[in-house]
Amino acid sequence: MSREPEFSEIDLHRYLDGEMAPEERQAFERWLEGEPEAAKALAHFREDRDCLREILAPVLEAPVPERLVQAAERLAARSEDLQEGLQSEELVDRGAGTHGECPPHADGRRVRGQWGGWQQIAMAILIFVAGTSLGLFVGSNAEPAATSRLQIAKRAIDAHTVYVSEVRHPVEVGANEKAHLVAWLSKRLGARLVAPDLSRQGFRLVGGRLLPSDDKPAALLMYENEAAERLTLYIVGNLENRQTAFRLSQRGEVKSFYWLDGPLAYALSGAIGRRPLLAIANTVYRQING
Amino acid sequence: MDRRAAILRELPSLRRYARALTGDKEAADDLVQDCLERALDRLELWRHGESPRRWLFTIMHRLHLGELRRAARRPRHERLEDVTEGADGTLARPPSQAAHIHARQVLAALAELPIEQRQAVLLVGVEGMSYAEAAAVLDISVGTLMSRLSRGRKKLRELIGEPEDRPSRPSRLKVIK
């Protein structure tokens, strides 16, 4: 460079904050030597900045209150679930327009528009439940079970993935022993199980099996259609004993709608379209509560 | 990258920024907690392989804006001074030399800054964010950020500078490049 460039007041800050490339820094430093006023201003800005840092440093070093650590742990646990490849979202739009940056659940609205009769009733329940969870945010209460609920989806998708590809032994007890299957699994889970009839949706019951979920029993029911597409309904004890809206989780091709319903938690999984899967999830929900 | 560790690592910085922004210990921790809870619904906005810092600070910034909008306008200048009194004892450590003399003045001056300038001064100067990062958090252009930072620091200096310094504005400098 033949001529030294002129620098502006903004450049004092760019220099101070390390926003200059090495070459520009050197040119700036040369320029500054002939500008005592600017050098003085720079020194003041630096002094004020360092002063602020020093005054606020104790906050950085202070122990973090337990409630914040817990909130951070919940967030961390959920983010690790996501890292494992699970994508999760709330199906129901939680109060349209309450937060602008929230991506619109266009699909949910379309689906809602098509529905009639019992679906509207079911959706009304879901919207109510979702509204309640929105309330959770407005207050400062945490959602303690966010992680465990996502764990349900994760385990359901794991089980689905392992067993739907099984040709010879997809189930332990076949649909020909349906009464025994339901009684057995109900006994093991300690709650009345229902094996929904999905024949109107083109899926027949193949059978079911018992699975471990940590040290608790879980049940897996398998369905199949004429095209040999398989769905699984994963059922496990619900520690929270409350209801939630449907949530969608997805890993690869496998989607899973999961929800809590009183003593049991359910996850309906399959590698089919989101809307047909949701329609079947609603059928399952209706039959269980019918 | 260990996501858990990455989130926990941001906690102290979030608290510090919230504290300097609100000037109130309880309000600051409430803001941080709201931020962590809101972040549960915004996990998809944390891009893979990226530090969670921008994501968390952005959420907190928006929550704070919402609070400011809701809250009736009332001056809270005096609250920032609480910081030096160390309700939890953490700020009682006497800062050294010049900082010691000016600590209270500086915090009072910080509280005098318009909120936009205070955000810029804190994110860049205290949290050490790059201009691009701070601009992203505040959802403004880098040019706007630089302008707010420059005005904020100048105002801060005017408010806390020694009396003989006050007229000594760097008159030879062009204000705009």
Overall description:
The complex is a heterodimer of chains A (290) and B (177). Chain A has helices at 9-16, 22-33, 36-61, 66-83, 106-114, 118-138, 146-164, 178-189, 274-288; strands spanning 87-90, 173-174, 204-213, 216-224, 230-237, 247-251, 254-261, 264-270. By secondary structure, chain A is of the alpha+beta class. Chain A folds into 2 domains: 9-61, no CATH class; 68-95 and 142-288, 2-Layer Sandwich (Phosphorylase Kinase, domain 1). Chain B has 2 domains: 1-75, Rna Polymerase Sigma Factor, Chain: A; 91-161, Winged helix-like DNA-binding domain superfamily/Winged helix DNA-binding domain (Arc Repressor Mutant, subunit A). Chain B is globular and about 45 Å long. Residues 77-95 and 163-177 of chain B have low confidence and may be disordered. At the A-B interface, helix 1, helix 3, helix 4 and strand 1 of A face helix 1, helix 2, helix 5, helix 6 and helix 8 of B.
How are the elements arranged and paired?
The complex is a heterodimer of chains A (290) and B (177).
Chain A: H1 9-16, H2 22-33, H3 36-61, H4 66-83, E1 87-90, H5 106-114, H6 118-138, H7 146-164, E2 173-174, H8 178-189, E3 204-213, E4 216-224, E5 230-237, E6 247-251, E7 254-261, E8 264-270, H9 274-288
Antiparallel strand pairs in A: 1-6, 2-3, 3-4, 4-5, 5-8, 6-7, 7-8
Helix pairs in contact in A: 1-3, 4-7
Chain B: H1 3-22, H2 25-40, H3 53-70, H4 82-85, H5 97-112, H6 115-126, H7 131-138, H8 142-160
